[in-house]
RNA sequence: GUGCUUGUAGCUCAAUGGCAGAGCGCCUGACUGUGGAUCAGGAAGUUGCGGGUUCGAGCCCCGUCAGGCACCCCA
């Protein structure tokens, strides 16, 4: 007998969850298109070698398998590496800079936890083929507007730069290749505090003086300008870090120019991020209501696409975690709380009146109103009203013998409980007006 | 992948090793041609699954699957 259950870490999304998920995706899509992004979709399955060699340690989490022809395949780990493949493959057909968004599932063989699954949906947005700090700023602005549009009351985007983290490691006398443990320790600052990070640094072989220096740098906070001035001064001997500060200044200036409120972002030297392909700006959006992790993350990866294409194609982008956004919104009760998609429910008084009710439902649908038709001519009106209520329909319509004789329809507003007789020919208009009224004055 | 923890009706949870229960939900009816209120009835379970100990296991032991938490890492 087949096992009746879903795969660990992979979920079924029932209607109530799907309604919120679709709302999230639609909102993100609208914001993206407002910024001039175009849609892209690519397969979930890639040749394993396409994904290999780009992710560093995370590679062990890739789902791999062989197809019937013995080809080594893999489920995509994110949508960024497949994007790189697509860009390299179709470079001649794309107009750069290319702004694209993509939505779909990715797969990682991790231990599942709250907000973290083996099959998870991401909504990505990237600007391909521009090294300009304006591109970085557009991505961060897009992020900020998207979370605002979804109704997140408070979130902050932490901004940092790979070469600032690198500079912190270098100035402390560590060579870059051995600095992985340092990045990981730094990244835990918010969780472990200064003492915890110090302990972690010493354990990974950093000498005490260097550890103190790292801790001091990592704890710099304040207005973006002040933080950048401070980093500039302290990392003055490191050419690449200085360049990174200049880059971040340009990005922050552009964010101000784009009208993103200053409270929405901050320079955070402690932000590391694990993915190996980032080369410049890195960022994460966090909210105090979700201590488990970030809502989304991203950054600039100027060399990744070059691994597929013959020339380097600088790119910056981000990935929203739809499952995580959904979990947080559900917990915080933000966004719509829809119970269904129907506006109208057409009852059937009895077998004699069934044809008339069908015609009415058909007419409402033709007018673009989401309409449910009762499936039980022999059920009492009470039962049918109950169904209308549970499906979240706003209006229940009755076409009984009296109405048919008089040429009208009883329309009951299930939210207010009031009802009235409406001339048969005016029903669509009447419902339309009621909906407009109620959205104008909520 | 490692450690800890949980799994009982659709949901939230009770039940000293001794007859498996409650609330909510669900179904039927009382109510005029009408939901969400109230009242009266009803259905519902191989206690995640498989083994073991015991006269007797929801409870103890082993395994397994799934959820949660911590590590790891990230969306």
Automatic annotation (TrEMBL):
Q: Write out the GO MF terms.
A: ATP binding; histidine-tRNA ligase activity
EC number from the UniProt entry: 6.1.1.21
Pfam families assigned: HGTP_anticodon, tRNA-synt_His
Keywords of the record, alphabetical order, are: Aminoacyl-tRNA synthetase, ATP-binding, Cytoplasm, Ligase, Nucleotide-binding, Protein biosynthesis
Any idea where this protein resides?
Answer: Cytoplasm
- This protein's pathway: Amino-acid biosynthesis; L-histidine biosynthesis; L-histidine from 5-phospho-alpha-D-ribose 1-diphosphate: step 1/9
Q: What does this protein do?
A: Required for the first step of histidine biosynthesis. May allow the feedback regulation of ATP phosphoribosyltransferase activity by histidine.
Q: Write down what this protein is called.
A: Histidine--tRNA ligase
Q: What species does this protein belong to?
A: Candidatus Viridilinea halotolerans
């Amino acid at each position: 007998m087949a096992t009746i259950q879903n795969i660990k870490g992979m979920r079924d999304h029932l209607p109530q969850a799907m309604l919120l998920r679709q709302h999230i995706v639609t909102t993100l899509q609208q914001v993206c298109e407002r910024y001039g992004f175009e849609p892209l979709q690519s397969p979930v399955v890639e040749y394993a070698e396409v994904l290999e060699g780009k992710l560093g340690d995370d590679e062990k989490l890739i789902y791999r398998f062989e197809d019937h022809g013995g080809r080594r395949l893999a489920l995509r780990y994110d949508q960024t590496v497949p994007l790189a493949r697509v860009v390299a493959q179709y470079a001649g057909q794309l107009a750069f800079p290319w702004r694209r968004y993509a939505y779909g599932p990715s797969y990682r063989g991790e231990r599942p936890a709250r907000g973290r699954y083996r099959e998870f949906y991401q909504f990505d947005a990237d600007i391909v083929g521009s090294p300009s700090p304006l591109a970085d700023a557009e991505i961060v602005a897009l992020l900020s507007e998207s979370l605002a549009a979804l109704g997140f009351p408070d979130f902050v985007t932490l901004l940092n730069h790979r070469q600032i983290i690198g500079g912190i490691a270098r100035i402390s006398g560590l060579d870059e290749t051995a600095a992985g443990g340092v990045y990981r320790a730094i990244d835990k600052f918010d969780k472990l505090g200064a003492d915890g990070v110090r302990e972690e640094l010493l354990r990974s072989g950093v000498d005490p003086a260097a550890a103190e220096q790292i801790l001091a740098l990592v704890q710099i906070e304040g207005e973006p300008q002040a933080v950048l001035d401070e980093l500039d001064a302290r990392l003055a001997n490191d050419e690449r870090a200085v360049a990174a500060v200049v880059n971040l200044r340009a990005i922050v200036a552009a964010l101000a120019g784009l009208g993103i409120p200053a409270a929405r972002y901050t320079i955070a030297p402690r932000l590391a991020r694990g993915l190996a392909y980032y080369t410049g700006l890195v960022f994460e959006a966090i909210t105090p209501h979700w201590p488990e992790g970030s809502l989304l993350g991203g950054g600039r990866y100027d060399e990744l696409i070059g691994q597929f294409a013959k020339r380097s194609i600088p790119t910056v982008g981000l990935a929203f975690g739809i499952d995580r956004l959904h979990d947080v919104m559900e917990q915080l009760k933000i966004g719509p709380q829809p119970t269904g998609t129907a506006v109208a429910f057409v009852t059937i008084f009895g077998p004699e009146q069934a044809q008339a009710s069908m015609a009415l439902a058909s007419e409402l649908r033709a007018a673009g109103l989401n309409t449910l038709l009762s499936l039980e001519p022999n059920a009492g009106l009470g039962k049918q009203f109950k169904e209308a209520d549970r499906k979240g329909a706003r209006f229940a319509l009755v076409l009984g013998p009296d109405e048919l004789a008089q040429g009208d329809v009883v329309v009951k507003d299930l939210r207010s409980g009031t009802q009235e007789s409406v001339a048969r020919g005016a029903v669509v208009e009447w419902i339309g007006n009621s909906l407009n009224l109620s959205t104008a004055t909520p």
